[in-house]
Design brief:
This protein is an alpha/beta fold and about 425 residues long. About 45% of the residues lie in helices and about 15% in strands. The chain has an eight-stranded mixed sheet with strand order 3-2-1-4-5-6-7-8, sandwiched between helices. Bound molecules: nicotinamide-adenine-dinucleotide.
Length: about 425
């Protein structure tokens, strides 16, 4: 199959690279000329484990290439994926579809021969029909079918997720489009990956429902964590105790500073708008969004309490990205927590293994060269992201660098007893504070 991938961001680049690994010939397009130039020069614009190898191998094999000109990529393609961004629209939380529609217009003008045009971006119900109307308007002679194929990969494990997804969801109305989509994902039949064929509307809603459900699970355990602190229970035990129930499952039950990232915040907001517009408000998700927004401030206040006020204090922050193994800073809890602490007079020394470059654009803080550099002379340390390298800190060295042995761990990566035994006052989430 010849495939054009419009938008070479996290999803477009990973999907394009992995589809070329499946054996298809893929051209990834982006309007950012510098991004395409970098990719042509062998540089990967994002941090995603394993992506550089997949890209390099498939470029070398001649199956993967990069282009700024949509028309060149679309010409002769059997399938065109639209994987551009759909951020929250300023002011109202609706998904901003301007990039999708602009891409659709350019794609439409370049279509030749039968092509399946696929929305891979996360888009509200009805967008695929709107894209179809745009294509027909711009190019009435075009021979094409529309499909919706939302992406479920997670940043940080995106390659493995694409190679071995739990399922592939495809919304389309014609047998011909279905045959093309089957052919694109044929290599996954080896792993017996379920492919859910459905209507385009269901496919679009599946993506939002999945993200909203996962965001709800996180928010649920976060509220349980608050309750645990009040009643002397341990949220780790509660999560394990409920997670072993097969109907509940143990994933997404880690209490923390609230969900962030490039998807959950904007997708929950967009789902709320869809529900309101359709006259079927999604009240559970309304609560999830409100609780999660409040949680980030609550976590900043928790840090303030742990430090006995932060005015004039230096705080070492470990981790700024919304989760480990990515450099993505979009909607990271750190973007709320750090400015709150600064407004209260704290001086921040931070280290993130990969997020520093992005963080520098969004936060006005001192970025340190490594963990121990950040700790040097600070009044205490706050763990905001559970990068592996923070999981095995040399406690003796940490203690010797800090002015006082205070550790606030918003990811619960240590056992309270172990931290206390090492001499720390250890404040975590949904568990009793441990003292030496
Ligand atoms: N990031 C994730 O983990 C993830 C996971 C699943 C789904 N999604 C969804 O996938 C979509 C893309 O997300 P992302 O994180 O990859 O976004 P991104 O911002 O990283 O990448 C989007 C890219 O599209 C390019 N672009 C925009 N308009 C274009 C045009 N007309 N022609 C060519 N290129 C154009 C931009 O320059 C940018 O490089 C979103 O709808 C998102 O919700 C993202």
């Amino acid at each position: 199959m010849r495939i054009a991938m419009i938008g070479t961001g996290y999803v477009g680049l990973v999907s394009g690279a992995c589809l070329s690994e499946f054996g298809h010939t893929v051209v990834c397009v982006d309007k950012l000329a510098e991004k395409i130039a970098a990719l042509k020069a062998g540089e990967i614009p994002i941090f995603e484990p394993g992506l550089d190898e997949v890209v390099a191998a498939n470029v070398k094999a001649g199956r993967l290439s990069f282009e700024t000109d949509i028309a060149k990529a679309v010409h002769g393609a059997d399938a065109v994926f639209i994987a551009v961004g759909t951020p929250s629209r300023r002011g109202d939380g609706h998904a901003d579809l301007s990039y999708v529609y602009a891409a659709a217009q350019e794609v439409a003008a370049a279509l030749d021969g039968y092509t399946v045009v696929i929305t891979k971006s996360t888009v509200p119900v009805g967008t695929s029909r709107e894209v179809e109307a745009i294509v027909r308007r711009v190019n009435p002679a075009a021979q094409f079918d529309m499909a919706s194929n939302p992406e479920f990969l997670r940043e940080g494990s995106a390659i493995e997720d694409f190679r071995r997804p739990d399922r592939v969801v495809v919304g389309c109305d014609t047998d011909r489009a279905q045959a093309v989509m089957r052919e694109i994902y044929r290599p996954l039949y080896l792993h017996e990956t379920p492919i859910v064929f459905t209507s385009r509307e269901s496919s679009e809603l599946i993506k939002y429902a999945a993200n909203a459900f996962l965001a709800t699970k996180i928010t649920f355990i976060n509220e349980m964590a608050d309750l645990c602190e009040k009643v002397g229970a341990d949220v780790g035990d509660v999560a394990r105790g409920i997670g072993l129930d097969g109907r509940i499952g143990n994933k997404f039950l880690h209490a923390g500073p609230g969900f962030g990232g490039s998807c959950f915040p904007k997708d929950t907001l967009a789902l709320l708008q869809t529900g309101r517009d359709a006259g079927a408000p999604v009240r559970i998700v309304e609560a999830v969004v409100a609780v999660n927004d409040a949680r980030k401030i609550a976590m900043a206040e928790k840090i303030e309490r742990a430090f006995g006020g932060v005015s004039g204090k230096t705080i070492a922050i470990l981790g700024l990205t919304f989760k480990p193994n990515t450099d993505d800073m979009r909607d990271a809890p750190s973007l709320v927590i750090v400015p709150h602490l600064q407004a209260k007079g704290a001086v921040i020394r931070a280290f993130d293994p990969e997020g520093g470059k992005e963080a520098r654009k969004l936060l006005n803080i001192e970025l340190c060269k490594d963990t121990y550099d950040a700790l040097d002379g600070a009044d205490g340390v706050v763990i905001l992201t559970e990068w592996n390298e923070f999981r095995a800190l040399d406690f003796a060295r940490v203690k010797s660098l800090l002015k006082s042995p205070l550790m606030v761990d918003l990811r619960n990566i240590y056992r309270p007893a172990a931290a206390a035994a090492a001499g720390f006052t250890y404040v975590s989430v949904g568990r009793k504070t441990a003292k030496p």
